[in-house]
Design brief:
By secondary structure, the chain is of the alpha/beta class. It folds into three domains: 33-189, ANL, N-terminal domain (Rossmann fold), CATH 3.40.50; 214-396 and 408-439, Rossmann fold (3-Layer(aba) Sandwich); 444-542, ANL, C-terminal domain (GMP Synthetase, Chain A, domain 3, 2-Layer Sandwich), CATH 3.30.300.30. A nine-stranded mixed sheet has the order 3-2-13-12-14-15-16-17-18. A five-stranded parallel sheet has the order 5-4-6-7-8, sandwiched between helices.
Length: 543
């Protein structure tokens, strides 16, 4: 620990939400411009905002003025298409400049941005676009095959300028070409929705989490304390902006005036070391999977690059003690574990900017400005050592999540006696540290992805050989968990490697390449309750 860092307790005692809003340039009113807060206010600063590293290793740099003017042009293009406040603009985009421009432009016109992960297959994409009622989809030629025809009214496509466009589609570059670089951004109330981030459902279809305009204030303690992000930082968020953590890190870093690295290729351990050294990355926001991948390299290889890192952050699943110990040894840095959810933001963690003890394996302590507890079904706080639901006290100052889109029943069920409770189970020790105990539902966390069994099971059931299917998470040294499927076959079919390959391919093509079962076990029957519900806990016991 460093004596130069403020103590955790002092940060909690001195924390003031008014100062957060001041830092974002919001003033005292409730109507704010997110586009101004994220890029426009930094436009006169002589600093690189974004570096995009392409798959061939070349890079392209964008200043804050570049992003401000480009997002203004795209905002004008969206407005020309009739997009206004409250309309949904979806983005199915690979990492790069275009997705950042599209997000900021959507915020500037007052639209609700809907990130869609490029790993999803056509069925998953189709469901999300139809459920949110997207008016426009911004996508890329490389993933155009994942977009079912007729899903949205207007299609804007980035990428290869020489490629033919579907009927009625618009080229991303052409849409911006003749538009003004000036735009008066729409101001929206902090209690209005500005994004829809879909959760993976464990017992039903994914839910659209409506994220408030206030989200930028809600994540600010994480940006400042968790990441320890400084204006002169070069941040590399390895996640995809199509997922919540990537979305937060990219926009939060830009709002802080830092430089963000966007690497289009999925990073291997070797690529990771190369990017860290080549671009002088000072702040790494990643997943346990990439950290565990780096651990497969020899200590000498890890120590070879000349690194400038001062902070490592991890989110997606708990870090085990071995990961923490490894990077303390080879880089003299402690990877800081953070806990978050679509409905919470990032309310618990270990903080790079604060002087605090880090207990390897612990979720950490509540963020300054947040009130967290372990509660029972009635919303009563439990004593240290007791396992219950991790709850966040509802508070307009740290409002992040508003509701589930078009699902009032699920929204009501989430708030219990003033606590937002998602079903994450945990306990709190005598020092106030939180420890994750698992999910009350059956969510699978694999390589930083949250995977709901329902979508995978639904894809498996499309195969004519499959009568029933159940999906669980199985412990895995590299990924945390892998998807394992138990399959009951229809009469006349027999399990085989060839059939397993067919099922894997079906899942990859239908819902996403990150969701496919890495293990398939054929069984005669699935364990069920008297009411017919699958007992996944019994399957987990079997492994």
């Amino acid at each position: 620990m460093s004596a130069e860092r403020p103590s955790y307790l002092n940060a909690v005692r001195s924390f003031d939400w008014n100062q957060v809003r001041e830092s974002l340039g919001w003033g005292e009113g409730d109507a704010v411009s997110l586009g101004h807060s994220i890029v426009d206010r930094h436009a006169d600063m002589n600093r690189t905002a974004l570096i995009v590293v392409s798959r061939d290793g070349t890079d392209q740099k964008f200043s804050y003025r570049d992003l401000s003017e480009a997002s203004n042009r795209f905002a004008n293009a969206l407005r020309r298409l009739g997009v206004g406040p409250g309309d949904r603009v979806a983005g199915l985009m690979p990492r790069g400049a275009e997705v950042i421009i599209a997000i900021i432009a959507a915020l500037k016109v007052g639209a609700i941005y809907v990130p869609v992960f490029t790993g999803f297959g056509p069925d998953a994409v189709d469901y999300r676009l139809k459920h949110c009622g997207a008016r426009v989809l911004v996508t890329h030629h490389d993933v155009l095959g994942q977009v079912p025809p007729g899903t949205v009214a207007r299609l804007i496509i980035a990428g290869r300028s020489d490629a033919a466009l579907p009927d009625g589609a618009i080229s991303f570059d052409a849409a911006m070409a003749n538009e003004s670089r000036d735009f008066v951004a729409v101001r929206r109330n902090r209690e209005e929705p500005t994004a829809l981030i879909y959760t993976s459902g464990s017992t039903g279809q994914p839910k659209g989490g409506a994220i408030a305009v206030n989200f930028l204030a809600a994540i600010w303690p994480y940006i400042i304390y968790g990441l320890d992000l400084r204006r002169d930082d070069v941040l590399w968020p390895t996640g995809d902006p199509g997922w919540g953590y990537g979305f937060i890190c990219y926009l939060g870093a830009l709002a802080a005036g830092a430089t963000v690295i966007s690497v289009q290729q999925n990073p291997t351990a070797e690529l990771c070391l190369s990017v860290l050294e080549r671009y002088g990355v000072t702040n790494l926001a990643t997943t346990p999977t990439l950290l565990r991948s780096l651990m497969t390299l020899d200590d000498a290889v890890l120590r070879a690059p000349a690194l400038r890192l001062h902070a490592i952050s991890s989110c997606g699943e708990p870090l085990n003690a071995k990961v923490v110990e490894t990077f303390r040894r080879v880089w003299n840095l402690t990877p800081m574990d953070h806990f978050g959810a679509t409905e919470y933001a990032l309310p618990i963690g270990n903080y790079n900017a604060l002087d605090m003890d880090v207990k390897a394996g612990s979720m950490g302590l509540p963020s300054p400005g947040y009130t967290m507890a372990v509660v029972d079904e009635e919303g009563r706080e439990l004593a240290a050592g007791e396992t219950g639901f991790i709850g966040k006290k509802a508070n307009p100052d740290c409002r992040y999540w508003l509701c589930y889109w078009n699902d009032a029943e699920a929204t009501r069920a989430l708030v219990k006696h003033g606590w937002i409770v998602t079903g994450d189970l945990g306990r709190r020790d005598s020092d106030g540290y939180f420890w994750f105990e698992g999910r009350a539902d059956d969510m699978i966390k694999s390589a930083g992805y949250r995977i709901g069994p329902f979508e995978v099971e639904s894809a498996l059931l499309k195969h004519p050989a499959v009568a029933e299917a159940a999906v669980i998470g199985k412990a895995d040294a590299l990924r945390g968990q892998i998807v394992k499927s138990f399959v009951v076959l229809r009469q006349g079919y027999a399990g085989s490697d060839a059939l397993s390959d067919e099922l894997v391919s079906m899942v990859k093509n239908s819902v996403g390449r990150h969701q496919y079962p890495r293990e398939i076990e054929y069984v005669d029957a699935l364990p069920k309750t008297e009411t017919g519900k699958i007992q996944r806990f019994a399957l987990r016991q079997r492994g």
